[in-house]
Amino acid sequence: MKPLVFQAGPSQAAKWALRSVSFGVLVALMAVGLAATSAISGLNALVLLTAAALFGVLSLLLVVVAGISIWQKGKQGLGMLVLALLMSIALLAYPAYFVARGISLPMLNDVTTDIDHPPEYSTAAVAVAARAGHNPGPVSIDVRKAQQKAYPDVQPILVDIDSQQAFDLALQAIKVLGWQVIVAVPPGKHQTFGHIDATDRTKLLHFVDDITLRIGPNQGQTQIDIRSSSRVGKSDFGTNAARIMRFSDEFQQLVDNL
Questions:
Q1: Do 208 and 231 fall into the same domain?
Q2: Nearest-10 Cα torsion for 4, 7, 12, 16
Q3: Residue 124 falls within a domain, yes or no?
Q4: Which domain holds residue 72?
């Protein structure tokens, strides 16, 4: 085996690999920071993150070129090569995770606890304005069945408390989760079911998603049905189902503490 002997002159490929991934990391941090402060939309932040990932891919290609150059010609720059490799892996790990989830999960962006009769979003002027005119429409039964298969734990919440108490606890759970309430209509004499519309933001890019809850009696118990919908994209990568499960866990904990 040919010994690795370093000769004068650094590997230009190693230099550019490190520069490329460093720029990619800078772009990624800028995208996340701007999205967090609402300086740019989640969609624009996603464009920037895609560009950052491309710089990470370019860096990996340059790492390969640099590795061949260092091994065959004894060029300097092994430290830069290793650093560029580690930074590229870190930069691409999160996008790779979401790509894997996107492949394994069904193509849907609207999840509900009641696939036969999903809760409907409020058509009140304040709710429509809060959704910026976006109105999640009906979803085909085939998509709902795919949801049921992918997320069997997303089920209606049944509790042994009255509807008004369940409504109040639902608002408490929403506050803990950090959702923004848009419309809250309690169950009363003139309407059997309580209704809550809210919005939530995704953690990384702060996409705004819509949520609606329906709260009412069901055979001596109170049933809560939830629907969570993404405004952007055809796949939510599991975000809406996870949001519903977080609410369910938080609500159940409040009920258990009564």
A1: yes
A2: 50
A3: yes
A4: 12-104
SS3 assignment, position 183: strand
What is the Cα–Cα distance from 70 to 135, expressed in whole angstroms? 57
What are the start-end ranges of the E strands in 100-244?
Answer: 110-112, 157-159, 180-185, 194-201, 208-218, 221-230
Q: For residue 134, give the CATH number of its domain.
A: 3.30.310.80
| CB contact set of 248 (below 8 Å; sequence gap of 6+) | 157, 226
Q: Are 208 and 159 in the same domain?
A: yes
115 lies in the same domain as 16 = no
Q: What is the CA radius of gyration of the chain?
A: 25
Q: Which residues of the chain have pLDDT under 70?
A: 1-8, 189-190
- Residue where a domain terminates, one of 104, 135, 159: 104
Burial 67-76 (b: 16+ CB within 10 A, else e): bebbeeebbb
Q: Which residue has the tokens 């590997």?
A: 11
Q: Is the dihedral of CA 32, 60, 88, 6 positive or negative?
A: negative
For residues 41 and 131, membership in a common domain is answered with: no
Paired residues of 226 in beta bridges: 213
Look at residue 45 and give its three-state secondary structure.
Answer: helix
Nearest to 55 by CA among 94, 97, 84, 12: 84
- Residue 183 inside a domain? The answer is yes
Over residues 91-139, the pLDDT tens digits come to: 999 889 888 887 888 888 999 999 989 999 998 888 888 888 788 888 8
